[in-house]
Amino acid sequence: MVLATRRRKLSIGGAGFGMVSLVLSLAVVAIGGAIGGTMLLGGSSGSGASLLSPNGSPVNRAYDVAAESTLSNAQTAVQTAAVATGYGAITAQSLEFDEPSAQFTSGPSTSDTQVSVATSGSQAAPGTLGSETPAGGTTSGGSVTLAAYSDRISGQGSCLFVWMTSGQTWYGAEPAQTTCQAHLLATAPQPSVPSSGSIGWAQNTFPSP
Question: Is the pTM of this model over 0.70?
Answer without folding.
Answer: no
